[in-house]
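Re-run with default settings, no changes from the original entry. Doing this only to confirm the output is reproducible before filing.
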Amino acid sequence: MVWGGNPSAFDIANTKNFILAHSEIQYLLVLNEPNLTDQANRTPFQASSDWLIYEKIISDLASQGRIVYLVGPAMNYGTMTNYSDPVVWLDAFYAAYKNANGGRDPKIDFLAFHWYDYGLKDQLDRLQKYGKKIWITEMANWQVNSYAMQELQMRDMVNICETRSDVFRYAWFYGRGTLPDSKYTYLLDQSPGTLTELGKYYLSLPFSK
């Protein structure tokens, strides 16, 4: 993953060389929560310029025989003034990119999304306008107050992901630390590799993706 957008924050050559040295890599995730000021913190205009760098990494790899898919930006509700809504940010990003690149859409193979609340279906419905398969790289519900309630939310969220054709992949955000955790999300306990009851429940849910 290229976490941020500023080219000075990562080494482009090292990124390409790392991918070329690891044949198992199929995806490059980029731009983590750009509309959060304590995360990637990139305006739509800045991101439209960043995206050319990401695209060049992908095209350079392709010229060397490696096909790698571009996944991002990873959107959530954020803290950036005027752009807290992920759809507002994305609309402005698309407009800025198209304006700077002759009307061409940015290359996005999969749109990434994070969600920590009720209403996952409605949020995914809002993203359909972009015509992209969605990779939910983080999800959980931070509004619950027990593991029992989290199990109910987990079941519903997984079912939504499994039954929607526009969801490519999804991952539960389990966090790390000492149990019990304040958000009731951990899949692993303090012992390395040991599942919590929530983790066992997650693995028991039907899946096909």
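The radius of gyration is 18 Å. DSSP finds six helices and five strands in the chain.
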